[in-house]
Amino acid sequence: MRRDSDRETMVKPPTSNQATARPRRAGTLDRIDRAILEELRLNARITNQALSERIGLSARPCLERVRRLERAGVIRGYTALLDPALIGHGVVALAEIAMRDPSAATRQRLERALRANPAVAELQVIAGEYDYVARIAAPSLAAYEALTGDFLADPAFGIARIHTTFVLKTLKEFCGHSPSDDMNGDSQ
Asked: Distance between CA atoms of 180 and 15, rounded to whole angstroms?
């Protein structure tokens, strides 16, 4: 547990169940909840006072809503976004992974290894030609090649192939899901 001094509230990091749990229902969020979520998505370090002023609610009810959203698992945690290049990751790749052996035991073994590897920043199970897509940050092409080579060489992981797309430039970074119902970018 860590203390977030800007908002004077205790925040627990998400458990593995919370990280994979689906929201109850999107319809349970009202306009004020969505405004709070959007402000926190854009700036999680905002003070409760500033947040309450931005959404037009007094500080106490604002804090109660934030705490309710945390308890409900809508807000799973707070994090800092780091620039990969500035922390020594000169290569960012999207690796699509196809399984040779799709058995449950092999998949679990691979998923455990990928989640435990600090170079794997994000991992998704996908449908289609590939089974997974992983965002991998490495210090160099050689380091990336060694990492993927190790995964391919180990028969316990059951990988048939890895298709890599290297990121040349990020035009829009993932900063959380927008709570807006408006998918056209015309939210107010």
From this structure: 26
CATH number given to 2-71 = 1.10.10.10
Residue 95: which of 28, 162, 18 has the closest Cα? Answer: 162
| Mean pLDDT (the chain, rounded) | 85
Which helix (H) or strand (E) segment holds residue 3: the answer is strand 2-4
Fold of 85-166: Alpha-Beta Plaits (3.30.70)
Domain ranges of the chain: 2-71, 85-166
- pLDDT tens per residue across span 7-49: 333 334 444 444 343 444 545 899 999 999 999 999 999 999 9
* Ramachandran region, residue 73 (left: φ > 0; alpha: ψ -120 to 50; beta: rest): left
